[in-house]
Amino acid sequence: MEQRIIKRLENIVGSTNIIFKPEERICYSYDGTIQRGTPDVVVFPDGTGEVSEIIKLANLEKIPVFPRGAGTGLSGGSIPQHGGIALVLTRMNRIKEISKEDLLAVVEPGVITGNLHQEVERLGLFYPPDPASLKTCTMGGNIAENAGGPRAFKYGVTRDYVLGLEVVTPTGDIMQTGGRTVKNVTGYDLTRLLTGSEGTLGVVTQIIVRLIPKPKDKKTALVIFDDLDKAASTVNAIISEGVIPATLEIMDRITIECVEKTAHLGLPIDAEAVLLIEVDGSLAKVSEDIQIIEDICTKNSCRAMEVASLLADRERLWKARRAVSSAIVQLKPTKISEDATVPRSKIPEMIRRLREISEKYNLFLPVFGHAGDGNLHPNIIADKNDKDEMERAEKAVGEIFKAALDLGGTLSGEHGIGVMKKNYLEGEMGAIGLNYLRAIKKAVDPQNILNPGKIF
Amino acid sequence: MEQRIIKRLENIVGSTNIIFKPEERICYSYDGTIQRGTPDVVVFPDGTGEVSEIIKLANLEKIPVFPRGAGTGLSGGSIPQHGGIALVLTRMNRIKEISKEDLLAVVEPGVITGNLHQEVERLGLFYPPDPASLKTCTMGGNIAENAGGPRAFKYGVTRDYVLGLEVVTPTGDIMQTGGRTVKNVTGYDLTRLLTGSEGTLGVVTQIIVRLIPKPKDKKTALVIFDDLDKAASTVNAIISEGVIPATLEIMDRITIECVEKTAHLGLPIDAEAVLLIEVDGSLAKVSEDIQIIEDICTKNSCRAMEVASLLADRERLWKARRAVSSAIVQLKPTKISEDATVPRSKIPEMIRRLREISEKYNLFLPVFGHAGDGNLHPNIIADKNDKDEMERAEKAVGEIFKAALDLGGTLSGEHGIGVMKKNYLEGEMGAIGLNYLRAIKKAVDPQNILNPGKIF
To answer: Which PANTHER family does the annotation name (chains A, B) (predicted)?
Structure first.
């Protein structure tokens, strides 16, 4: 990158908030995927005005800009393509307001999601979205990818909590979308259009999120099944009874085996499925719900069931689920984490298809995820240095997407398209849908400055 | 309109599904507002293919198309401008699927919202959005305007229940958005962009909506207050306690007086506010919630409170709220129904400002609406033949919008912008926001064929 441009960027953000040495820039070349791309320069703006100036400069000089939070994304959404400017928003990490009366918080994009959880829960409030990376990921990234998490089944995803945004447009202008009210039908719903747009339609510089009262009580159940269909029927029966657990997680046999081998939690490695069910709400509601769940699990011939009320006991039950990500990479270092999502009724069929794919390509493919909303996480565990295995993995990914679409599902439930899935997008959206997306992108970013090479 | 174009439209929809006589066309010139605009021709397509052909023809001949359901809209969203084609979707009124397992329904746009309620409730399921016009309004119109209703406080608006759409684009192509899963982050969120776009970005020809299990129990409370602030504090205290009623309606003194004078329900005409609170859920939860609500109302010095469990008793309490719309037009025939929405904490201040506006312009202005989400309905009751009064009303509307924006609110909570509020849009969105909207519209509808003259 030309020195005069670096100089101008330095004038905007200050000399301590810019990086251009190669050994430093490389730290901003990755995310949670196997994708890599090193930016020409990394800037750390503080404030909407600085972001606006950077984007205006980028438009003038026709340099691509890649917005970035903590780099925990799972679709390559923040990875620079062909150099450009990495726009790191982690300095903008203030929680500006938490209103108990209006049940909302105003935050900057660099706020870590888990920190927001803590701050609002201290006041008896609750921000439900809980992506697995919540201890490091940022709210800006959550908006960009429309992050989900286990609690999404009951509470919905990030999109369902965004009330308003401050956005720097792809041409560097500043606009406000939505506001401080839950109901707002003034103009197109830019708030939701921006949410999940993966940094291609604007840079979010301030976020108003809706909060809810913190549930008063919680109970957790770990239920073991010898039959995958029985586990799936249990999920449907619970929902049919009108019980909506906060989380309804499933782990398949391969995952159970893997977790048990590394974490030694006493899980039966011959079980076909484990459900981890957590209910929350008022004391009366939680007691009522867990009783209904126990009855349904028994009726559906579960092998065993443990219910916990106290925090320490609940944490113990959660250990199995929390151990999954680290357990499955013990075997091989490269994890290709997918989030193909199917209608709830198709979960058993999807798991069966995933097993066939795993056998066909001789790949290690544990399946776990959010059974309540059909959002499974098939993970291919491989070694990126094994060329043959990686080729088989690539073919398997294609078949996973095909299976999800065949069953009326979607490529991505909560990770986004990024660079990892863009070749498959037309398979889901069709050429007309893709053209519609492209037309919107071109209309608001005519020079293709903001996060080019993503989604399409 | 040229005869050859009418002939071609007739070929598409059949001779019994087209209207071109002036006395018949006039039936499609209105909605729920005081706006009027007669189309040159009215067509009643059946099927996505026919809609697509009509839009393609309209593009070829550069004729504007105005999609329309039952015409119950409150912002002029479906009113034709300068003639054109009225595209009436009421023949496409099939409920194509209700899935208990996947908790969804697939419907055509002409399905009446209340009919969908009945059909899904028969199966123990629930579709929450409940606009006041639910007995006549159609699902397509609900999507176009992102309709709300009293239950939106607990359950959210139409947008929160739309999973996927089949859409004929402004150029006549057919595309699918979203799908059958709750989680879906594949590409931009076109489903939500289309929802609330007031028929300007596409014609919805099929809708997949999310359903939830039907709540098992309900209780209703009618609470009378001598003090507006006490009523507002009660609303906040209920929510702070973690109780989220299904509906939390407020009526001001003027509204109470008006209802009592016409419906004689025994309401105290000197009360400052009435709250109508309904809780739903499981038996245990409903009992627990209503007890908390009773305690809070007592603590906040309500004058009187009546709680009902049985359907007949609950219906009696609802009578006051349901009587509002017909009661307020007894005095004068023209109702200008607004839906300016403020953050919940600003409700008392907004009601005070509305009273000042009413006095300043010497207008009859009852206020009622959804207190839970700050979505008030200030209604100006006037006579459209009284020129002076209508001029004062117009000025008052401007001041209502200004007050809502001053208090951090929005022009429209659930009615949409249509033609009624478009001159005020820039005041809320700013020039940058408005340009962003316009860029999207122009990108997908370059010839401005679909519902021109709406929103901006």
So the answer is: D-LACTATE DEHYDROGENASE, GLYCOLATE OXIDASE SUBUNIT GLCD
Lowest mean pLDDT among A297-306, B198-207, B330-339: B330-339
Q: Look up residue A342 and give its two tokens.
A: 């199917």
Q: Residue A257: what residue type?
A: E
Q: Would you give the distance in Å from CA B13 to the centre of its chain?
A: 30
Q: Do B284 and A288 lie within an 8 Å CB cutoff?
A: yes
Nearest to A183 among B104, B187, B375 (CB): B375
Please, what is the end-to-end C-alpha distance for chain A in angstroms?
Answer: 26
Helix (H) or strand (E) holding A41: strand A41-43
Domains of chain A plus CATH, in order, are: 3-88 (3.30.43.10), 95-213 (3.30.465.10), 217-326 (3.30.70.3450), 331-406 (3.30.70.2740)
Q: What is the pLDDT of residues A242-293, one digit of tens each?
A: 899 999 999 999 999 999 998 899 999 999 999 999 999 988 889 999 999 9
Confidence of residue A325 (pLDDT cuts 50, 70, 90): confident
Chain B CB contacts of A188 under 8 Å are: 193, 196-197, 201, 437, 440, 455
Report the pLDDT value the prediction gives residue A240, as an integer from 0 to 100: 82
- State whether B242 and A213 contact (CB < 8 Å): yes
Please tell me the number of Cα atoms within 13 Å of B263 on its side-chain side: 25
Q: Identify the band that residue A362 occupies on the pLDDT scale cut at 50, 70 and 90.
A: very high
| Sign of the alpha-carbon torsion through A141, A217, A319, A224 | negative
Q: Which three-class secondary structure state does DSSP give residue A95?
A: strand
Confidence of residue B240 (pLDDT cuts 50, 70, 90): confident
End-to-end Cα distance, chain B: 26
Residues of A in contact with B211 (CB under 8 A): none
Interface test with A, best of B185, B210, B244, B375 (most A CBs within 10 A): B185
Give the residue from chain A lying closest to B416, CA to CA. Answer: A185
Contact B40, B58 (CB under 8 A): no
Smallest Cα distance from B441 to chain A, Å: 9
Q: In 3-state terms, chain B is what percent helix, strand and coil (to 5)?
A: 40, 20, 35
Give per-residue pLDDT as tens, B337-380. 999 999 998 998 999 999 999 999 999 999 999 998 899 999 99
How far is Cα B177 from Cα B197, in angstroms, rounded to an integer?
14
- Using DSSP's 3-state secondary structure scheme, residue B206 falls into strand
Say if residue A294 is exposed, middle or buried (CB neighbours under 10 Å; 0-12, 13-18, 19+).
middle
Instruction: Give mean pLDDT, residues A309-336.
Output: 90
DSSP designation for A290: H
Q: Where do we find the tokens 């008030």?
A: B376
- CB < 8 Å to B455, chain A: 187-188
Reported in sequence order, the residue ranges of A154-198 that DSSP labels E, i.e. its strands, are 162-168, 174-178
How far apart are alpha carbons A218 and A212 in whole angstroms? Answer: 16
A192 to B159: CB separation less than 8 angstroms, yes or no: yes
Mean pLDDT of A163-185: 96
Q: Is A294 helix (H, G, I), strand (E, B) or coil?
A: helix
pLDDT at A326: 86
A-chain CB neighbours of B156 within 8 Å are: 160, 182
CA of residue B79 relative to chain centroid, distance? 16
3-class DSSP state for residue A2? coil
Structure tokens at A101: 């009366």
In A183-237, the DSSP E strands lie at 203-210, 212-213, 217-225
